[in-house]
Amino acid sequence: EYILTLRPGHVTPAPWVNVIANPFFGTVVSEGGSSYTWLENSHEYRLTPWHNDPVVDPSGEVLYLRDEETGQFWSPTPLPVRTAAFHTVRHGFGYSVFECRHLGIESELWIYVALDAPIKFAFLTLRNRSGRTRRISATAYWEWVLGELRHKTALHVVTDLDPKLGLLVARNAYSPDFPTRMAFVDVSETTRSHTADRAEFLGKNGGYDAPAAMARARLSGRTGPGLDPCAALQTPIELADGQSRDIVFTLGVARDQRDLADLSARFRGVQAARAALEQVWQHWNHVLSGVRVETPDKALDVLANGWLQYQVLSCRMWGRTGFYQSGGAFGFRDQLQDAMAMATAEPMALRNQVLRAARHQFREGDVQHWWHPPHGRGVRTHFSDDYLWLPFAVCRYVTVTADTGVLDERVPFLDGRPVASDEEAYYDLPMKSEEVGTLYEHCVRSIQRGLRFGVHGLPLIGCGDWNDGMNRVGTEHKGESVWLAFFLGDVLRRFAEIARRRGDAAFAEHCLTAHTQLKRAVEDQAWDGEWYRRAYFDDGTPLGSKENDECQIDALPQSWAVLSGMGDPERVRQAMAAVERRLVKRDAGIIKLFDPPFDKGTLEPGYIKGYVPGVRENGGQYTHAALWTIMAFAELGERTRAWDLFQMVCPINHARTPAEVAVYKVEPYVACADVYAVAPHVGRGGWTWYTGSAGWMYRLIVETFLGLRVEGERLLLKPRVPDSFGPYTITYRFRETAYRIVIAAGASGERITLDGQPLDD
Fold first, then answer.
1. Cα 178 to Cα 254: distance, rounded to the nearest angstrom
2. Helix (H) or strand (E) holding 718
3. What is the mean pLDDT of the chain?
4. Using CA atoms, how far apart are residues 346 and 335, in angstroms rounded to an integer?
5. 355 in helix, strand or coil?
6. Predicted pLDDT at 761
């Protein structure tokens, strides 16, 4: 758990949230208690509003407590009704807890979702410590969206009270993807009043901190069409001195009337809610115990033993949302990279994702850059790297698991019109093609699509590569990417081995020949004298060169020259030395993506130039790339340098003191996408949670530094921690067997023992 203690009048510099999800349903909850909830697609079918307001942190879901004798009311969470109470907030894996004591009433509120059903629980425990009997009411309030945005859907939301089940139900029959769904709320108490009229609840000009309903004895019972839709349930309770009481509010979604009855029967009541919480604990304890580490660095342990894997699964793969971005879509390259981080601890997550991604590949070999579930509407683009992540991820899965059977899984292609040469992308719902191929054939088609080169013999960049913001480097389909050359070369090398083992000698040779040609082109055309260039524009102008006035050096091709194994050994050391000299800012604790940032120069690389110089991809720290830089230093054997750089980017190390918290501002227990490099905000964290850097940070810790790698039934250990690091332990669960691995530096060189007996091999 990450525990926050909030004194009266004190708040975190920005919302510190938890993303709580199962594979198809979830909620984001902040330390203030604000939250929003979704079903299946966190962008297209929000049950309650997503506000994206880090200053006010408003919420469309609120819980109120009221003293029925005095009329005083408050929240069991720090927001929206601020009081003089101390609040303790505990964010855990699959739950968040809010504790406070106000006016003699102790409250403990647990927020979590069921593991296998679209149900959210607000489990409230009240204890009377006032020395006398108290009459308290608990009121829960939800604002309905049932779609993307409230102002688009409010007119279409119809509410009613189910006469048999006693549930307050809402429907939006005009939802394009979810017209039959029935959202509902319930409370475990039998005595309750309700309303579905937001105007009644909040009152004229009313706010969440002082709603009109808190001045009324009970709710009106109003439901129906034509209202400003909400759901509110109020239940009165009496507490003797010292007595405690559990009340459970639930928010859920049913497919139809029968499912509504089933969900109500299964999850109604206090005992059902407790059982659901037990399942949540058991699930996350199992998933996060696949790899456990004990090292001299406790910050590393906190990240590796839970928060990074949890961020990958709950936020990136299941929720696909965070406080600052509510995307809802699957990104082709994005979730493949996330799933690759789970290959050792949860390999089925990667298997499922490569098969899911393959279903979004067109017959021509290109793919949807992203798509929205459930139907698959998405964008088809000229991006040049997306489809190559499929064979890259498949190679990792097969290497780790030795499951070559996945290559024979048959997956249909998509049919759709190709993107025209004069357009960057289009959004549409493609058709499932009659053509079906094995996963291996999908990978082959991806690689064949990637073997398109410009005049320098480098891959065409299209409307962008890994850096989406460089979308105007190749608008005329002549621009080339140096980073993509290294990445493609790595894919070719890895997949050649897959093809060889499969007996496809011709394609293996084709990959190796292309790899050799690409390696030669990189050294002949991409070296700038001290580092590798980033790209070439359509007209042949270099990018990432000392000739440029902006973006003279970019970290990406330097790190991948090392990670791909393609760069000349002497040149890569020279290039990484330039990265250290030009991009590593130790005084600020950041590793910049490139320098100088785009601002007023003549280069027009794309929308990246619209970012404030020194922010996000435009010359700030983009943590994803910073982690690749650290991996590259470690790969070169510069273990101490790599470790020192990790200490710089480790989020926990940005919040050890109040002064550091004031600068960094965002959550220190998860990875953030970016850190600002521009005054007066140097060192400030950007958006958190929904970032691919979580998976790569996990791999940097477990695979690069601690050296744990798995290849089929072989366990490989190649630590890259500094000599001064000290002994550490890894507990790794392989199938149903746990292996405890102790690694310590010794004077006699490398030596391995199993249960105390030396191993020769």
1. 11
2. none
3. 96
4. 14
5. helix
6. 59
The domain ranges of the chain are 2-286, 717-758
Q: What letter represents residue 720's amino acid?
A: R
For the segment 528-587, what is each residue's pLDDT rounded down to a tens digit? 999 999 999 999 999 999 999 999 999 999 999 999 999 999 999 999 999 999 999 999
pLDDT in tens, 267-321: 999 999 999 999 999 999 999 999 999 999 999 999 999 999 999 999 999 999 9
Q: Is 166 exposed, middle or buried (0-12, 13-18, 19+ CB in 10 A)?
A: middle
* Orientation of helix 439-450 relative to helix 347-358, angle to 10°: 70
Q: What contacts 258, CB < 8 A, 6 or more positions away?
A: none
Give per-residue pLDDT as tens, 508-533: 999 999 999 999 999 999 999 999 99
Confidence grade of residue 756 (pLDDT, cut at 50, 70, 90): confident
What's the pLDDT band for 735 if we cut at 50, 70, 90? confident
Residue with tokens 């810790």: 701
Assess contact for 490 and 496: CB atoms under 8 A.
no
Condensed to tens digits (0 to 9), the pLDDT of residues 46-93 reads: 999 999 999 999 999 999 999 999 999 999 999 999 999 999 999 999
The pairs formed by 468-472 with CB atoms below 8 angstroms and a separation of 24 or more are 468/383, 468/617, 469/605, 469/606, 469/607, 469/608, 469/609, 469/611, 469/617, 469/618, 470/535, 470/543, 470/605, 470/606, 470/608, 471/424, 471/605, 471/606, 471/607, 472/604, 472/605, 472/606, 472/607
| Interatomic CA distance for residues 128 and 131, integer angstroms | 8
What percent of the chain has a predicted confidence (pLDDT) above 70?
A: 99
For every residue of 287-352, which 3-state class applies, written as one string? HCCCEEEECCCHHHHHHHHHHHHHHHHHHHHHHCCCCCCCCCCEEHHHHHHHHHHCCCCCHHHHHH
Degrees, nearest 5: CA angle 471-472-475: 105
Average pLDDT over residues 725-731: 94
Torsion angle defined by CA atoms of residues 473, 476, 481 and 484, in that order, rounded to the nearest 10 degrees: 120
Parallel/antiparallel/unpaired status of strands 708-711 and 594-595: unpaired
The separation between CA 196 and the C-alpha centre of its own chain, rounded to angstroms, equals 34
Under a CB-based contact definition with an 8 Å cutoff, are residues 111 and 103 in contact? no
CB 165 within 8 A of CB 264: yes
Angstrom distance (rounded) from CA 111 to CA 234: 18
* Closest C-alpha among 112, 139, 148, 140 to residue 27: 112
Cβ-based neighbour number of residue 215 at 10 Å: 12
Per-position DSSP letters for 480-492, written without gaps between them: EEHHHHHHHHHHH
Q: Residue 337 and residue 339: Cα distance in Å, rounded?
A: 5
pLDDT at 747 > cutoff 60? no
Task: Render pLDDT for 207-242 as a digit per residue (tens, 0 to 9).
Answer: 999 999 999 999 999 999 999 999 999 999 999 999
411 and 359 Cβ atoms separated by less than 8 Å: yes
Total residue count of the chain as it appears in this document: 761
Fold entry, domain 2-286: Beta-galactosidase; Chain A, domain 5 (2.70.98)
CA 146 vs. chain centroid, Å, equals 23
**648-672 burial code (b ≥16 CB/10 A, e <16):** bbbbbbbbeeeeebebbbbbbbbbb
Which helix (H) or strand (E) segment holds residue 626: the answer is: helix 623-635
* Pair 618, 469: CB distance under 8 Å: yes
Coil, helix or strand at residue 660: helix
Q: Which phi and psi angles does 553 have, rounded to 5°?
A: -140, 135
Largest CA distance in the chain: 85
Nearest to 46 by CA among 56, 62, 35: 35
User: pLDDT-derived band of residue 753, with 50, 70 and 90 as boundaries?
Assistant: confident
